[in-house]
Amino acid sequence: MRAFVPRKGIDADFVAWQLICNERDVLEKTSKDGTTVASIEGPALASYRLAIAPSAEQKRIVAKLDELLSDLDAGVAELKAAQQKLQRYRQSLLKAAVEGALTAEWRAKNPPTETSAELLQRILRERRARWEEQQLAKFAAQGKAPPKGWKEKYPEPQPPKTEGLPVLPEGWVWANVAQLSPNDLANGRSVPTAAVGARVLRLNAVKNGKVDLAEFKVGEWSDEEARPFAVREGDLLIVRGNGSLSLVGRAGLVGPVDTQVAYPDTLIRLGVVGSVASPAWLGLAWDSPFVRSHLERRARTSAGIYKISQPDIESVSIPIPPLEEQTEILKMVGNLGDEIRNMEVALASALTGSSAQRQNILRAAFRGELVPKDPNDEPASVLLERLRAERGGVVKPARVERKSRKIRGAA
């Protein structure tokens, strides 16, 4: 750290606010070049030119800044508090959605047509039927007849563990990913970046529960090589590794796909039996507290990267309401979510405006436009002449002290 130690007649707060106002210019003119660690060059900082007002005017400027910026800071604090309330409301909305409270009134008017036990059995039957269709398609593609006993090789999924999970409404059931997906989970493929080749998504394509298909690079492979990894509408892509524990295991839903783009080895693809669970429903439930808790407890870290495995994902338990209710919940969450996003945009815009207003106030202060002039003030030129005389008639750069443990004075 470095400290400016102002001489008599130079207000420390006046110097501090001016440096804050000119932060970008200070960095541009005093940063060291060619170093791996960003730092400030001492002599350049000592030579940085400051605008000096009369001592009395400095104090009036600081007092006015304290007044205006205190009011502005109070407004910013209120905006940030509103952002936090919106975030809590979003979490409460998600909890109500995935636990059935959001559609309690709707459900009273639209009772389920099958019990939770019947729904679970239908999930298992349709999963098996989908698996058998896929196996027959593979045999046909190979030009082979199904071998004897091939149906016995069906991998029966393990039931979900529901200890500690919320009690679900009548007609809902807990099911794990292994029960909901007829396909094995599949990691993508890692390919080097190339000037020419097939598209492959970047890890940051997964954003806010969706997959941004515009976030891709060109990989060193052909369209044919990439085709097995091409994403499809309704796929759920799961982040298998990230430096942040809160991001590992996050999922994004793939929307309409116009052009082939593959997914990389940093993502895992999950497909579900659409006749019992909407991919959009699974994407919504994936951000719920119990899913996040499940994944974060199982994440393992190595070299600063958190990772989850396919068994971790297969064992995730998801609440499954009837399809009609899934549709209703998604519609309600979508409508309320739009309102939340509109308010978030408005708050973000207000915060941006506050930041701009803060900078405008500071610029006005150091252009001499914030407080009125007083002809009785001692001119700044007289102040500087006195400082020059005190220093032996030589004008030197402002003294900048380097402190390793304690900072004296003001900065």
CATH class of the domain at 118-321: Alpha Beta
What's the architecture of the domain at 118-321, going by CATH?
Answer: Alpha-Beta Complex
Q: Tell me, rounded to a whole number, the average pLDDT.
A: 90
| Classification by helices and strands | alpha+beta
Counting DSSP E segments of at least 2 residues, the number of strands comes to: 15
Query: Secondary-structure element order, as H and E?
Result: EHHHHHHEHEEEEEHEEEEHHEEHEHHE
Order the strands across the largest sheet as they lie in space. Answer: 3-11-8-10
- Indicate the radius of gyration in whole angstroms: 31 Å
> What proportion strand?
5-15%
Estimated helix fraction: 40-55%
Which features would summarize this protein structure in a list?
411 residues; Adenine-n6-DNA-methyltransferase TaqI, Chain A, domain 2; 4-stranded antiparallel β-sheet; 3-stranded antiparallel β-sheet; elongated; disordered C terminus
